[in-house]
Amino acid sequence: MPILVPVLAVLGRKHSGKTTVVEGLVQELSKKGFKISTVKHVSRSGFSMDAAGKDTWRHTEAGADPVMLVSDVELTVKIRSGASASLEMLTRIAKDYNADVVVVEGHSSEVLKDPRAAKIICVRSRDELKEYKEGAVGEVLAYCSIKPLGKGVVDTKAGLPEVAEKAVAFVEKSRKIIEVQNRLGGLDCGKCGRGSCWELAEAIVEGDAEAELCVAKGAKPEPRTTITVNGVEVVVQPFVAEFVRRTVLAMVSTLKGTNITGKEQTQINIT
Q1: Per-residue pLDDT reduced to its tens digit, 248-265
Q2: Between 20 and 30 A from 38 (CA), which of 8, 53, 94, 193?
Q3: Tens digit of pLDDT for each residue in 129-170?
Q4: Which residue, 192, 242, 187, is CA-closest to 212?
């Protein structure tokens, strides 16, 4: 399953300034018009935001899953069985709520070696800097610290605007990669010579490969009909999509000055 929105990961040990970076990053990206979803990983085993004895806890104990808590200001959903902390699932949830970017705080076991996530790594010493440099896979936007550590490490607060600019560039690139990846076979079979569909999509975006290299059932064709409601693409069965396309083209062909061949794509955007 592919990721559905770009991922920025803020990593580091305890008391390294991760939350400060997340706060600043969310503020800077929000100013630029992005809608941000955040993920906070808790390493403590058995942790729950619920509390024993509360009504929602009793619902869970009785067997309900998921459990939803609704107030006049928010909706909280607690999922137990089948819950997944994978980037694929997290970005799917974020996409459902129209997020442009997912910012993950922590969760190194999932994202440190995932090339799809750009990293901002908070370090407390030069030793940690060396350790993360050896372990990180994919693009590292910056190494930062709440105290001066010398060359190659930016100040956590003063360096945030520059880090945010790098984050914007990554998000724009990642969006293009995700768009291309969604048209590939999706099997990560490696028959194209790349390690994954993501790697092939990235190479295509950078101009180093062609979509025809995807031989896992061939590259998926461009959809001939796309319907978007409030920024979210609606999944449409091929028969329905083709029916909608032909109907729209038939209506448009009656308009003066149009030249419809029947091969055109249709894009319907409802807001």
Answers
A1: 887 888 888 888 777 788
A2: 53
A3: 999 999 999 999 999 999 999 999 999 989 999 999 999 999
A4: 192
The pLDDT value recorded for residue 132 is: 96
Q: CB of 164 within 8 A of CB of 25?
A: yes
Residues 6+ apart with CB under 8 A from 27: none
Question: And the tokens for 243?
Answer: 């029916």
- Give the type of residue at 217: K
Q: How many Cβ atoms are within 10 Å of 255's Cβ, its own excluded?
A: 8
- The b/e string for 44-76 (b: 16+ C-beta within 10 A; e otherwise) is eeeeeebeeeeebeebbeeeeeebeeeeeeeee
9 neighbors 117 (Cβ within 8 angstroms): yes
Longest Cα separation, the chain: 71
Domain boundaries, the chain: 7-41+85-178, 45-84, 184-213, 225-270
d(CA 21, CA 161): 11
Which residues have a Cβ under 8 Å from the Cβ of 133 and sit 6 or more positions away?
A: 140, 143
Q: What number does CATH give the domain 7-41+85-178?
A: 3.40.50.300
